[in-house]
Specification:
It is a single chain. This protein has helices at residues 7-11, 30-50, 56-76, 83-95, 129-149. It is mostly helical and 158 residues long. Helix 2 (30-50) crosses helix 3.
Length: 158
């Protein structure tokens, strides 16, 4: 048994084909006509602001740009996503808060950092002072060997 859905009801577009016996060679929904008129007015206003004159060529290019933009906009809208919801989503996307990518404060500087030539060591206790002194001397003797093997930029364990 085959169950039919009601999708065909929604697939019917509100299309104006033109006057009887003189229809247009293309199909356009009512929404597309409204969007196209608004887009054409915006495109021609933008052309005048940029400095293009009002002649046949510039108006033709304005019409071509209008058709392209109208087709782009109308592919995003349907009976499930009407123009009002798409425009609301667009406005909310533009006004939504963004993550700040710029850092806080000024440039970092190492001018106030004190650098000593030797690494800080634990102070030897009085009981094992001789033993730790020998150990630190032996470590200092081995250190030049380690530095020869050390890869630049990689710290070796102490």
């Amino acid at each position: 048994m085959r169950v039919r859905t009601d999708d065909e009801v929604y697939r019917v577009d509100a299309v104006w084909l033109g006057p009887p016996k003189a229809t247009f060679p293309w199909r356009a929904r009512y929404v597309a006509w409204g969007v196209g008129i608004v887009v054409f007015l915006l495109v021609t206003a933008l052309q005048r602001q940029v400095g293009f004159g009002f002649d046949f060529i510039n108006t033709g290019w304005g019409f071509v740009i209008t058709v392209a933009l109208t087709r782009f906009i109308c592919t995003r809208i349907s009976h499930e996503r009407p123009l009002s919801s798409v425009m609301t989503m667009w406005v909310r996307e533009l006004n939504s808060p963004r993550e700040t990518t710029s850092g806080q404060g000024g440039a970092a500087s190492a001018a106030r950092i004190r650098v000593s030539q030797h690494r800080p060591r634990k102070r030897p206790s009085e009981k094992g002072a001789k033993r730790s002194a020998r150990a630190t001397r032996s470590q200092h003797r081995r250190q030049p060997d380690r530095r020869k093997k050390e890869v630049r930029g990689v710290r070796t364990p102490a």
